[in-house]
Amino acid sequence: MTDTKINEKRTSSLAGDMSVDLDAEFKKSNIQEVLDKLDRELIGLKPIKTRIREIAALLLVDRLRKQFELLSETPTLHMSFTGNPGTGKTTVAMRMGEILKRLGYVREGHLVTVTRDDLVGQYIGHTAPKTKEVIKKAMGGVLFIDEAYYLYKPENERDYGAESIEILLQVMENNRDDLVVILAGYKDKMDRFFQSNPGMRSRIAHHLDFPDYSPDELLAIAKLMLAQQNYRFSPDGEKAFAEYIPLRMKLPHFANARSIRNALDRARLRQANRLFASRSKNLTKVDLVTLEAEDIRASRVFQEGKLDIDGDEGTDKAEEARRLKEVK
Amino acid sequence: MMTNHGNRITQGQFSFLPDLTDEQITLQVKYALKNGWAVNVEYTDDPHPRNTYWEMFGMPMFDLKDPAGILMEINECRKTFPNHYIRVTAYDSTRGWETPRMSFIVNRPKNEPGYRLMRQERSGRSIGYTIVPYSTDKPEGERYS
Ligand SMILES: Nc1ncnc2c1ncn2[C@@H]1O[C@H](COP(=O)(O)OP(=O)(O)OP(=O)(O)O)[C@@H](O)[C@H]1O
Ligand SMILES: [Mg+2]
């Protein structure tokens, strides 16, 4: 009886001297396509891209090991993304879902983005159902908790955030096959959060730190964003924007790539106004797609060294949330 | 109902089959989610076929992508009410449907005593028939303990 069982097992797994083709497995997962897309559509972020490659390699090798029945636990994939505003944390988290899906580590690969308010309730008995509802929605995909440190408020010992953390810890341990949790936030605050929540720290395998972009990278990002929306700079326009970037970086509330996106939105507005003002003239396609130097230089950043008034970085998290919803 | 083997009540889908395994439940839920239906977990200890509205266990679950969360909820409910009837329903909110599209039992009491047939003598020698679950002789919550 036992003998036949062992034999069965042998035939279903590979013998020790057989070989598997890592390259073939790699191709089969189509992971290269996602990694290439990541390279193309995200400027800079070298350390992040390298890390993602490493994780992909780990998961692929893990799959091969399974074929030899080399048992090891399902690798922990929970991550923490730290970095300043607008450095691409949310964007990379969305890609992560797709990558993990291709590698077969999540079933759906969707991203559910939440903050403290979505997880923590207002009164006794409110928090657990709220947190569980979010967890259920994220199952099969990635749960992205933005500004995760607000879950923990040490100054108030009766804060319901602790209850939410408890539930998350349980799920992160017991439902590793069902969802991947990514915590995001600013580096120093996250470090403090992990110090006071060792349980959370020990469940997170990958800490990724997102660097700020250099002015050159920001210009490249600007050009990429414009291309995606069928716009482009005129040569003078590009020069003006290259000058704009370091000026904007010195001002308060600078949010890396997000500030770039906002600046471009305002430039498009000015372009439209300019075209409208000269509407007696017939417009060509080139007129419609080109941002001229004057569309950039009209910014108050040039004129007075101040931020443009029409809601700079304050309101756009709401805008981003809306965009994320649309993507879904 | 009364004529079934072992008095197993038969309502909704699959109720003439052996109990679904968790794996089979997962596949059914997956089908519901694929169609965009909101899945609910409901329980009762009143097996009368006209008892249409069972108690809801938690909120209806909208916007789920994966059955794992629902199976988690089913297991919670089984833990809380191990000896109740528990069913899963899938509600279609599209205009014109606005109705449950699926319903199947995922948990039963260990012992299902079945139904008593009641006859009522009426005028003119006619007889009215009705059924009463034996279990509902006892108050709610004490019926299958
Ligand atoms: N490397 C990049 N290449 C191209 N676009 C980028 C890059 N990084 C970020 N962006 C763009 O910048 C915007 C902000 O990025 P994202 O929302 O990912 O930042 P974040 O780190 O999540 O910021 P926050 O901490 O404020 O939430 C998005 O519109 C995104 O598309
Ligand atoms: Mg973000």
Task: Describe the protein.
The complex is a heterodimer of chains A (328) and B (145). Chain A is of the alpha/beta class. Chain A has helices at residues 2-12, 22-28, 31-41, 46-67, 89-102, 116-119, 127-138, 161-174, 187-196, 198-203, 215-228, 235-250, 256-277, 285-289, 293-297, 300-303, 316-327; strands spanning 79-83, 111-114, 142-146, 180-185, 206-210, 232-233, 290-291. A 5-stranded parallel sheet of chain A has the order 2-3-4-1-5. The longest helix of chain A has 22 residues, at 46-67. Chain B has 145 residues and is of the alpha+beta class. Chain B has 2 helices and 6 strands; from the N terminus they run αββαββββ. In chain B, the strands form 2 sheets. Chain B has a 4-stranded antiparallel sheet with strand order 2-1-3-4. The longest helix of chain B has 13 residues, at 22-34. Chain B starts with 21 loop residues before the first helix and ends in a 12-residue tail after the last strand. Classes of the chains: A alpha/beta (328), B alpha+beta (145). Chain A binds chain B through residues 107-108, 110, 129, 133, 135-137, 139-141, 175, 178-179, and chain B through 58-59, 61, 63-66, 68-70, 72-73. The complex binds adenosine-5'-triphosphate and magnesium ion (MG). Magnesium ion binds at residues 89-90, 146 of chain A.
